[in-house]
Specification:
Blueprint: E1 21-23, E2 37-39, H1 51-75, E3 81-83, E4 86-88, H2 93-120, H3 122-130, E5 133-135, E6 140-142, H4 145-174, H5 180-197, H6 203-228, H7 236-242, H8 247-268, H9 271-289, H10 294-314, H11 320-324, H12 327-333, H13 338-347, H14 354-357
Antiparallel strand pairs: 1-2, 3-4, 5-6
């Protein structure tokens, strides 16, 4: 009687959500029904996030199952009949031993694939665990590398503005007029970058501050151009000292700085920021009106300079997330349509009434 080696196709089906390696061991003992055992390997971490790891583990288990099928086909001695969802096979002791060996081989392959894939994704999982999530008005958010770059760039820009102010004062005190103008525009450039990078919830106010800065910068360039083409003064600072009305020309830049100081003081409660908020307009108006004597003006400038140094230095001790504020506000307001905002709130499981509050 010919031996029919028919094998069921159970080795070709695997669940979509869990990777399993199943070996079926059947033996005929006085007409008893077949028995099966299932060995489930460890699930691969982060299946939904890394499709590549799922595919690699799937290939490994397919190969292991094929090895089991090959071992059965080679060592089975008898008739294998397929009926419904089970099959009966007459096997020798050697067949059972070989199948057990194949099962161990399957386990080793599957565990090895899982370990390798877990090692590759270990760095990503570790980075994911290290992230801190914060609850905002419109949803949860986290600090990204781009956020960190913007915050640190903002702080460096403020430091450049402070360095430029120090250069202006040192150049004036030492009588080195050649140092004043480059230092002034170094500080003005740093302040301009800071106005671009600063995080403010009310965008129109930020735009007004930037516009004032632009007016003051153009006015400063105009004064320098005038002094370089036959003007009586050798530097911008000297010209403003001799012409009090020049404060109207460069003053808008300092008005913008006053707004930034108020924002920092109101948001973080920093005393040095409030000091700058008060001293900047007093210093400018005192010189414009002539009410402040030279000694008083010197005191104002020295106090302002000291406050600026403390303010720029302490920015580096502040947490990055504090300089960002509530990132969910910027994300939500950056959405262009109501549909996008509604979808965002639903994903964040927030009340849709928040849409009406922003209108």
């Amino acid at each position: 009687m010919a031996h029919n080696h028919l094998f069921p196709n159970c080795f070709a089906h695997f669940p979509a959500t869990t990777i399993q390696t199943t070996t079926m061991i059947s033996s005929s003992q006085k007409g008893s029904s077949s028995r099966s055992r299932s060995l489930t390997t460890r699930s691969v971490s982060s299946l939904r996030k890394n499709r590549r790891r799922i595919l690699r583990a799937k290939v490994a288990t397919d190969f292991a199952s094929a090895a089991v099928a090959f071992a059965r086909k080679k060592n089975t001695n008898g008739v294998v009949a397929v009926g419904g969802n089970s099959f009966i096979a007459t096997t020798t002791t050697k067949t059972i031993q070989t199948t057990k060996s194949s099962r161990r081989f399957t386990t080793l392959l599957s565990c090895s694939a899982t370990k390798n894939d877990s090692d590759e994704g270990g760095d990503d999982d570790e980075n994911e665990r290290q992230k801190e999530y914060y609850e905002g008005l419109y949803g949860t958010w986290t600090v990204t590398q781009t956020d960190e770059l913007e915050v640190w760039s903002y702080r460096v820009a403020l430091s450049l503005a402070c360095l430029g102010a120090v250069g202006v004062v040192l150049g004036d005190v030492s009588g080195n007029e050649q140092m004043v103008n480059p230092s002034y525009f170094l500080g003005a450039s740093g302040f301009g970058v800071a106005l671009v990078l600063v995080h403010m919830y009310v965008t129109p106010i930020k735009r007004v501050m930037q516009a004032l800065y632009a007016v003051g910068l153009i006015g400063s360039l105009g004064i320098v151009a005038y002094t370089q083409n036959g003007g009586s003064s050798s530097s911008l600072l000297e010209f403003v000292r001799e012409h009090r009305s020049a404060v109207w020309v460069i003053g808008p830049m300092f008005a913008s700085f006053t707004g930034l100081a108020f924002k920092e003081g109101a948001c973080y409660g920093k005393a040095e920021a409030f000091l700058l908020f008060l001293l900047t307009p007093i210093m400018c108006l005192g010189h414009l009106t002539g009410l402040a004597s030279d000694e008083v003006e010197t005191f104002f400038v020295a106090s302002w300079m000291l406050g600026f140094l403390v303010f720029a230095g302490r920015k580096y001790t502040q947490a990055v997330k504090d300089d960002i504020g509530d990132k969910s506000v910027f994300t939500f307001r950056g959405l262009k349509t109501d549909e996008e905002r509604r979808d965002y709130l639903e994903r964040q499981e927030k009340d849709l009434s928040l849409m009406e509050e922003t209108m």
